[in-house]
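Suppose you are handed only these lines of text.
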Amino acid sequence: MPADTVISGGTVVTATDTFEADVAIDGGEIAAVGAPDSMPDADETVDASGLLVMPGVIDPHVHVDDMFSIDTHETASAAAALGGVTSYVDFAWQAWEGDLSIFDEAGTLLEGIERKREKAADAHVDYAFHAAITREDPAVLDELADAVEAGVSSFKMFTAYEHGLSNGFMHRVMEELADLDAVGVYHTEDSTITDMLTERFQAEGKGDPTYYPKSRPDYAEAMAAEDAVRMAAETGAKYYGIHTTSRKAAEVIDDFRDDGSQVRAETCTHYTTLTDDVFEEMGNLPMIAPPIRKRDDVEAMFEYLSDGTLDVVSTDHCGYERESKEVENWWDSTFGANALQTSLPVFHDEAVNERGFSYPFVVRVMSRNPARVFGMAGKGTLDPGTDADVVLFDPDETYTVTADDNASNADFSIYEGREVTGRVAKTFVRGELVADDGEVVGDAGRGEFVERDLPDWSV
Ligand SMILES: [Zn+2]
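From them, the structure of the protein bound to zinc ion can be written out as follows.
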């Protein structure tokens, strides 16, 4: 029986190893990995000589088609395909009423999941959702099991913003999550501190973007993380710390990982590759919450990724235009930046070329770990029988990042002008080519919803 495709002559990278091998794909799945003479005949052969053959990137933290992004799933997923990202996890919001909200009236989690599934129908890559809890209405507790049943096994909570939750309500949710064995995902900043500092800078007319990181200090992040992870430990709930930015917050995660099983965390590409000098260089464009930090915090991200305290590197992709950033005072700017298209090449360049990390390290933090943490059993590896989500990556090609190449609706890049070595050559989603040499190929809508299982964190 011939296979659909054989990727021949490349260097396979797994979470643990790098070796010369061919990869056969059939029916959308990896059929075999091995020596050329062990491969089945194939309808199509893809020459991967000189290229790395890696599992597709899984980005478990993106914002698409809601109040935090002007991207549609079609544009965000085109950026993803070009960036070697074969699955991403967006947010399905429990509708709330407020200044930040796009919703006319309050709604339920399950409605949020249904709404996002419809919006994502045009995606080029596979997608999943975290359900975001935005209101302290106990009725949401009765929805959690149904959300898990619907393939949404993780729940986002914020300690900041108008849709933030009190410790008391988060604690109540955690009790339920512990019973369900589902994952809580936490944005942690102590908003009483960040709000007070913001108001003070506003009163003092400190609207220059260099004041932005001072309004959201690292200790405010660490304090809220400590409360949340402590409650998770006490209630027995799985804890995932989203966008860890600072040494102080990573130390908190480290303290609570001693049990070895219930705490996981991520950082983002920008916290590993940029320092707060960017606010002088680029104004409000790199305003992201929490803020891009100091050189020592960048070092801490790599230390803690290296020792496994941090598991994942995500993007926190938010599609925004310059116009919403280029305002007089930083507090009137949008928060967030696009990165789905640039994350893998920028992180690879920093980690492998600049710091000497291995290719398997990149696969661990960008593919295998997010799949494991979030219950995506068929993804994040090149093991036979799993989905053929594959990136062919040229580790030697050098190019300069520019927003002119953006497939996102966003019209800037926080990596503008950065020269990187390492470029995505081809991206396959379940065996189908979705990006080829810098062009999106094929029709939108081939992406599928990934029904996620409850993850097993004992492995
Ligand atoms: Zn985010």
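What can we learn from it? The two ends are 35 Å apart (CA to CA). The first strand starts at residue 3 and ends at 8.
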